[in-house]
Amino acid sequence: MPNGLRGLMLSVMLASLMSSLTSIFNSASTLFTMDIYAKVRTHATERELMIAGRVFILFLIGISIAWIPIIQTAQSGQLFDYIQSITSYLGPPIAAVFILAVFYKRVNEQGAFWGLVIGLAIGLSRMIAEFAFGTGTCSDPGNCPYIICGIHYLYFALILFGISLILVLTISWMTKPIDDVHLYRLCWSLRNSKEERIDLDADEKQPSKEDEIMDVEEGPKPDPSCWRKAYNWFCGFDDNPAPQLSEEELQAIQNKLTDTSEVPLWRTIVNINAIILLSVAVFFHGFFA
């Protein structure tokens, strides 16, 4: 490639890498903060949750740097094959749960949980065995047993996806279904529902008396120092109290959040563009495969 296009391609690859890393770190930080840290620290303030999330991002960055030697030894040091193989080992259970949860409302929490756990255990067993025995080459095959590493990782992804689908469906059918009142606008068949949805953990989200006392304004606060302002700006904190909304404003926001109507013109344009992009992607995949 010419020098100009080579630099442009490199900048595109670096931008896509940065975008992927930031999305992964933010998602992992949110999952840790809201699903783990908030369960342990039930009365944690918003400031504390934000600090915990950012500290966890630093921890993830350290783990990512320490993982570089493993990448160099896996898949003969080929980064693309390594990324595809790891995705094939860990991604199919997540994809199976997500697809079933969107398109089949009979899936419940027990089916999704055990489908993820067992599917990830199967994928991790293949990944750990591959790291332990090595992938080998055509001239020097590795010592990994054929029953574990003999199947190509892309075929393994299809098999793991099917196993995860069967596990999620089977366990969901054997356990109690989720009532429709908890699924409005969360699955495909109920996407246009206008009824009010009640969260499964609505009882856990009820504010306690201590929280209500803490929410009461204690009067005007003193003006923070310059260092404090710089610290708040760097960390994204805001000392100003949240605005108090009236019942009408809250209802208007709720109606806007639950409105799933679409403009027919733009819906058609988006659907046509999606079909064109999928067709182009399939063509290039088949042409260059």
- End-to-end distance: 21 Å
Helix content: 55-70%
Strand count, sense and barrel status of the largest sheet are: none
Strand content: under 5%
Q: SS-based structural class?
A: mainly alpha
> What is the number of helices?
11
Mean pLDDT: 82
Outline of the structure:
This protein is an all-alpha fold and 289 residues long. The chain has eleven helices and no strands.
Description:
By secondary structure, this protein is mainly α. It is built from eleven helices and no strands. Helix 1 (3-40) packs across helix 2 (46-66) and helix 4 (79-103) runs antiparallel to helix 5. The longest helix is centred in the N-terminal third of the chain and has 38 residues, at 3-40. It is globular, with a radius of gyration of 25 Å.
Topology:
Blueprint: H1 3-40, H2 46-66, H3 68-73, H4 79-103, H5 109-133, H6 146-149, H7 153-174, H8 209-215, H9 226-235, H10 247-258, H11 264-288
Helix pairs in contact: 1-2, 4-5, 4-7, 5-7
List keywords for this structure.
289 residues, mainly alpha, 67% helix
